[in-house]
Amino acid sequence: MTVGFSIGLRALLTAQHVMDVIGHNLANQNTPGYSRQIAVLQTARQVTGDRLIQLGTGVQVSDVYSAVNEALLARIRSEVAHSGRFSAEASLFDQIESLLGDLTDSGLAAKLQSLFDSATEAATAPEDQVLRQNMLSAASELALAFHLRSSGLTELRSTSLLEAQTIVTTANQLLHQVAELNIKIKTQESVGTNASDLKDQRSVHLEKLAELIGANAVMLEDGTVNVSVAGANVVSGGGVADLAAGIDLQGGIRVTAGGALSVSAPGGRLGGIVDLVEEYLPARLADLDRMARNLILELNRVHARGVPASGPFTQLSSTYTVHVPPGVDPLSVALQDAGLPFDLQAGTLSIAVSDLASGDVQRFEVAVNPVNGTVGDLLDALNAIPQLSAFVDGVGRLHLKAASGYGFDFSRRLDALPVEGGTFGAGAATLVAGSFPVSLVNGAQLNIAVDGGAPQTVTFNAADFADINNATAAEVAAVLNAQTTGLLASVVDGRLVITSNASGAASSLAVTDGAGLPAAALGLPASASGTDQPVSVAISGMSAGGSAARLTFKAAGDGQIGITPGLEVEVYDESGLLLTTLQVGEGYEPGDPLEVTEGVYVSFSPGTIQGSAQQFFDLEIPGDTDSADVLAAFGLNAFFEGMDANTIDVSELLAGHPEMIAGASYAGAGDGGNFLAMAELATRPLAGLGSVSISGFYNAFAAGVGTSAAGATSSLQASAIVLLTLETQRAAESGVNPDEELLSLSRFQSAYEAAAKYLSVLMELDDVLMEL
Amino acid sequence: MTFRITPAILFEHSRFDLTSAYARFARAQGQISSGKRITRFSQDPAAASRALDLKVTLARTVQQRESITAARFAADTQAALLEEVSGLLIDARAAAQDAASGTNSPSDLKTVAAELNSILEQIVAKANQQLQGRYVFAGSRVDTVPFTASKALGSISAVTYAGDDITRQVRLGPADVKDVDLSGQQVFYALQRAPTAIASPIGLATTAGAADTMVGSARIVVQHLATTIGDGLGPGGGDSASGVAPGASSGLDTLIGPPGAHVLHLVSDATGGGTVALDDGSTIQFTGAETDLVLTSVSGAVIHLDLTNITPGFSGDIDLAGDGEISVAGGPAQALTFSADQALQDGAGRLVHLDTRNVQRAGDSLVVFPGTETVFDTLIALRDDILGKAGFPPEHLVLRIQTRLVALDRGHEGILGGLGELGARSASFERVAAALDLFELSLEEMRGNLEDTDVFASSLELSEAESAYQAALVASARLNGPSLLDYI
User: What is the ipTM metric for this complex?
Assistant: First the structure.
């Protein structure tokens, strides 16, 4: 009977226990991370009865366990970590895309095109100040668009760092909670107490940690977990190595664990943020800077070669300044070390110096070597140009100034009146010597008769020369001027030119050689006569670019322009190669332009030329007027100032002065050639951008951002589906199904009632027994 | 494997489905309300990239078309002005022809000259026309009055060009830049030389096909040097057979020509008197006592004769010859060679080739080089000729006017040439602008296909999305369906 009561009691208690578990399950069916618990029933220990019969003693709850699949949970945490990363990336990409606003009229692409369109429009009426101002406004808006995007991306880095720090703070709280739970679980399980609920709580924290920082968890036998981030242990039992996020030297986010250990590649949201801040955002900022830098460089290159509506400059200051360490003389540093934002190249700078009254243009070339040449060398070369002066002020700014009545520019303008010093078709008798230096004999003599007068003897003494064996044209000219009257000896384009002071047909020069044959050594013609019909030479057109050239025009005979049969002018290049022969005799209509080279024409007025007197003139044809990039490097006649997306702006010299835009490629307020050249930049492939246009580069930039954003969004969506599947699996294994639980409840309610009935019967039997 | 399904996961699935359905619904709704299928690159990076490229190209095309339209306007403006100039030149020609009728009184000629002067001033005004602040024919010096008229005694005496030869350009295509307008240089100075014309009452002619290099117009002066009568071996250097000798004023002879070019028709009677005529000029009676008889030919050649030594009874023709020299525009004088191609130089060394074979007498001629002077110069010269300012005999006026008209016509042709060029440019600009219009439409269509919402398709999609969303809502609402709890 006792055994029976014991069986009944156990049955009652067991049913009660199971119903408690069912109640716990039902109560926690919506608790995050809760895994349904299952009570395990087993028969109670048998007892030995009479005749050694083994009697059962009922039922008992042997265990209550959670339906947990640790492998599945680990898989879920892994996917949650991915999802966290994708979520962070998608969020940041979303912000970047909003910042760029590419498909709207306020996008950078639209602003860029607006600038080029404004240049195209200005070319239709270059004198229109409104159109010029429009171009400046478009440029300002473009600069602002660059600033907004640059500062926006920079700000995004800052806010991302804040977010990273918030994540780290939250993660640290979770890590501490995990550590605390580790201790509790270990304690409970060490005394055989079920710690399922604590484990479920810890699982929730681990999942959150996976989402935030991509934490991995390794379950240990004692019920604790070790947590690591990118290989760095952050929780071990009850110990925690706190995470910290700060900015490293490169501006990236540096995550450390325990104050020192570097966490190089965290996962989850933090990983997404770190990657974007360390790699993606800097790369996009660099792209923006690269684009702005190339725009500044290329537009300035074109603009610098143009001429403002007001004509050549009388003075000009550089946009950029020379920067040298304190105590260093700025003039002594090599150009490449002058701290200029853009590099100089080995090449030349060609400057056109104009006589503002006559319009006469002279070209001068300055050779530039950025490695060996110093800022001082450049200044010296500029100051050697007649009518031009240059200096660097105290803040390192380069200033150019023309003498009164002169102007300068960097265009490809040609010298319209190329004959200097009466060397070609002059009214006065003119003799031109050969090439220099020459070797003269000490004491050599020649006789020269001027305008039919008595021959004058000229003696060349060694004392008059630095080295009489290498006599220069200037030295010979000095001797001639000192020992003769009625003539002028000068050096024109490196040649010795002797001109009678008289003009007209009566003017003449006759040379006879004496001792030492100096006339032969000098290559002097025997005679020259003046004319009443001097020839005017005019150049028109403009260099088509390409290589620079210095052409020499030589009279190939004596005669009258347009009259003498077969009269020719020969054109030579610098190497002495005959390029072309111009027919200027009979059949040539004086004044008619003859093409010399592409886009360059020469015309001759009626008059007399003398090949026998070696008459000539030189013409400089500029190619690229700044192959050394001096103008762009110093920002001379610049359109933009600044050097990247954050600093780009319209040049201070242009702001408020639309007339100073160098829209002319030649001169004149109505010349819009350089506006067109600037507009052409819109489609020109640029070497600095990988041989794509600025628009093309930006399009690829925006498409790249869009593709990355789309990729992150797509990955996030895919991850969400995977997670849903995994969660479904977890629910299948660990979730609480109320129907199941209610069914079990009903079942154990019956068992409870049966046990109670059993006890009731036993008690009735016991009463019967007592009544016996 | 059959999953255990729990209400929690059903709710989770439902939440996921509701979110997806609503996102789809919201996107379809957004596409319709914004009119854009793509508003961000991430929505369709490839299409957005193409759309951005198209937008940039579209903006460039629109600007290019507007620039070309502006260029066309500029060309049309110039053409309209040149049409007015052309009309004025027609009026000038009519007035000059009226003056060349030979029936005008000096007062009438003054009126014509005044009309020509007025036309000249109007043409200068047209050439200096300003539009939108720019001088239309100034080249790139648009802020400078291009044609400066110098005045003498209140009338224009010269017109000079102060502009340049640089014109605006417009980009028609990637490598196709065209000039927009014409500079004053190109309109009024880009002249093509035409055959030289001459107004010579003395028998000078131009040499056909010769390469003259003189420009504008010039005065040719033929001066008489000496007259040879017959064999020149008679008394006083006269004809030995007839006894006709140079007159006392033979230095004033104007007769010029090689031997035989002029003939003296002499009929002498026994008393030494008779009749004499020069070429086909009037026959004059003489007595034999004349020492300085003046004879004039129909061509105007004049000869002075001494008939005191006439051979009585001589009848016959006596050959005459006149030597002379010729010069042009201050150039060196040279002896007349009576050749088909005698080249003369002016003071600047420019050439004119003349046919001097038929020179009859000394005198001035006018040589004009059509196509080498501006219409301003021609009109000034015409006006001055009509006013007699050049100092030539009035009877030469008609010939001079007719010669000047050749130059005026050539100048007019230059204007018409400019007009034609502008018309061609305008037509070219119009064609390109029309092509760009089509291109713009095409670009817009392509951009629209990529970027804009297809309203019909999106409406359908919205409807579908709405239905799906509603279905998801209905399904979600039924999640709390019957359970065991309802039946226990």
Answer: 0.80
